[in-house]
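Fold this sequence, please.
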Amino acid sequence: MTGTAVATAPLVRRGVAGVAGTIAAMLLAMSAIAGEAAPRRVAEPNTLVPAGVIRYAPSGFPDRIVASPAQDAATGFAVAWRTGAMVETPWLEIVEAGDSPDMGVPQRIRATTQALTTENGPAHHHRAEVGDLQPDTLYAWRVQGDRTWSPWRQLRTAAAADAPLTLLYFGDTQNKNASLTTRVTLEALRHAPDARLALYAGDLVSGGDGEDDNEWGEWFDAAGPLPSLLMVAPAAGNHEHFEEFEDTPQERRVLGAHWPSTFALPGNGARGAEATSYWFDIQGVRVVVLDGTSALDMGTAQAQAAWLEDVLDGAASRWTIALIHQPMFSPRQDRDNALLREHLLPVLERHRVDLVLQGHDHVYGRRGGPVAGQATPQYVVSVAGAKQYRLSQAARRDMSPTAEDTQLFQVLRIDGDALRYEARTATGRLYDAFSLHRDADGARRIEEHVEGRIGQRDCPRTTSPKGREDRCWE
């Protein structure tokens, strides 16, 4: 009887839901005929996991598999993955990919393991670093679980410094990842199937409320095949941190346990922010990842600025990109990160970093730096997820273009002395586009591309579904 009840209950629920949906559609049609207003949209739950349901329990099968670049992305990468607690120090296998299923004897690399217990039970998170690889070479690799392996994945190492590079940039995903971020990822992969790298500007999940692990499970669902097709380089956001000893005199901001377990990052960061700041080189681009939360709330602004100075001083790359969660110039109303402008902005400006890619504010906005006439840095804020805020009047005055109520992804194509940037909506429509050109003397100039862009997008609602005037959508 118990087995029958478990098997049929979902069918019963789906049947009731189907009838309810039909009735709701009929009532909506009748209301329209009668001239009544349509029912108001309501915000959906933050995850698709109902209360009391265990959807993302770890098991003997490897999951949450994600590859990230080594300091030199041409010769190495690192992989993180998760299993149940029965798996300790498993193997990663790697071999140069071939056309035959017989690709030869793979190299084996032993992983390190750390435990993490969440609302979904005890898990082991594993990390394996792969080095001494050949540039621009396709490798097949897989990771071990409990008497099983993941499917073989394929990843190409970075090519030479003068080879063309395509990469993706996503603003905050954070909320309703499985429900609404998934479509952004798929559209991005459709527009950039040749991408080698994906940059995430922080707040990958929302955290808190006892469902942190469910949210990480949904982030990986939303990312789909991306974390093992591309190298993933994320910045930590404020939602990757939490308040320890909250509402006590000992309250302090600390990094959440998921971050160092979920990603295998280069580990060459600033003092005090070793787990969340790092840099790497990929095909003539130096990418520097900063931790804005640590700088603002944990006292590392000066240390990160000094580290950033050293990293940029040592860059022989043609292009430089900085990735940070909190913006230098905030486009959202009632936000201002003055400490970042005091310590980090002068370094970015002095070294003429080409792009500063940011998140946090859940709107879109782009502007140049404070020095008039200089093409770089270009400061961009974007959002990929469902939560949507409102623009400040200052952003409408000082930034162009700007957008509210819009999920976006960005495609960057770098070829020699030209870098082309495109911001596209979740349906693939072009919203912003420009190119940076590097002249013979190293100077930068910017070329705006306005053809094909859609018009300004502003929030059409006076309040969010929950009645908040400071948000457009939850």
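DSSP finds ten helices and 26 strands in the chain. Residues 1-34 have pLDDT under 50 and may be disordered.
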